[in-house]
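Limitations
The structure tokens in this dataset are predictions for the assembled complex, not deposited experimental models. Users should treat interface geometry with appropriate caution, especially where small molecules or nucleic acid strands are included. An illustrative entry is reproduced here so readers can see what is and is not provided.
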Amino acid sequence: MHWGDIIENFDFLMKGLTITLKLALVSVTGSLILGTILGVLRYSRIFLISWFAVAYIESVRSIPLILFIVFIHFGALPYLTGVPSSFFDSSCIALIIFTSAYVAEIIRSGLNSVEKGHIDAAKSLGLSRMQRLSYIILPLAVSRMTPALVSQFISLIKDTSLASTIGLIELTRAGEIIYERTYHESEILIFIAFMYFVICFGLSKLSRIWETKPYIYTEVRESIGANQ
Amino acid sequence: MYNFNTSVIIEALPYLIDGIKITLFISVISTICAFMIGLITVFLRTMGTGFLKFIAVFYVEIIRNTPLLIQLYFVYKSLPALGLMIPPIWCGILALSFYTGAFISEVLRAGINSVAAEQYHASISLGLSKFQAFRLIIFPQAIRIIIPPLGSQFINVIKNSSLVSFISVTDLFYRIYKGAVDDFRFFEFFMIGALIYMVLTGTIAILTNIFENLFKIQGRMAKT
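Predicted assembly:
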């Protein structure tokens, strides 16, 4: 085994890790914003808008992410802007488009989980449609959909590895560059997998702590599916 | 305005259909293997004790928290170093099966947890062994609840199988990409590619719905 390769190229790998994290952070923020907008638009009273949101969500969810990344990088962005797009921009846009559909779906199920009683009470207090959404429904829904959102973002962090296929030098591509030179694939791949594991597993454990905290806005809810 | 050239797609259609066959072959085989792996894992996890349970949890957590692309590269590039020469397509199937197996085991675990614990205790007190209780009492009830999530896992396998093109398997995505690069017709090929993937996943979604209604037991609902 040649674990020395990792120590020799540690700085290079860490540079890749920073880009992975940066990509993940930008995509998480973007997809959260776009996903929330889509999730709310789905409940719009104007037929065309809600229909568009449904069509977007359903079609994006049934297409592989790699198709988006490659299409946006080589097809759509250069055609729209007229200049070759940077690796970071195109993978970021692809990740946002892809994840926002899933986020919208999570937002929808969160909104659906709000009991009808709350909405009726808000109506009887004279809150407008927008006020109901922003003061009553969203705060209730947010605390319930945190676990699903976190697991979606964990899979987004894993999906950033696909940006390596168009040439963005993030963690996976950095590792590839090293083992294409040294031919010690196993060690580098195990190390990269370990880095992803630490980030994703740490995040899921953090969210577990968050989940066990009492719900801020809601009543204490019985956990679903008690373990045997 | 971009001028669409449909003739390149019509020319490439037989080539793409071969790709669909490979994609479906990989997806179906890996889903079946993944279901087996998931079943074994969830049995070890819920019924096993000590070391076996630890192995099951370890496997699930490792696989779920690392990217599929790295697992594919690992299988493709590290197994030959150990003296195992497998054709790329079977490397892809191996990696996809283990990847999806971890997710399916989580789905199965959720289904098993939704079966009331009293049923397990009752079947043990009736003298069934742990394996019999799992096979005869819990599994038949759990499988009905988890048909929809299993269907979505199958859809995920179809989508994830596009990654095997990076270990030189000529599946659907590889052929779309190659067609687009060869003719420099990105829009046409990606539109048709997206359409094919949508049709494939949509069919699975409809089939899942049909199966769900087929196996539904009247009046039986998941414990909430």
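Some entries come with short summary sentences. For this one: The interface with chain B takes residues 59, 62-67, 70-71, 74-76, 79, 154, 158-159, 161-162, 164-165, 172, 176, 179, 185-186, 189-190, 192-193, 196-197, 200-201, 204, 224-228 of chain A (CB under 8 Å).
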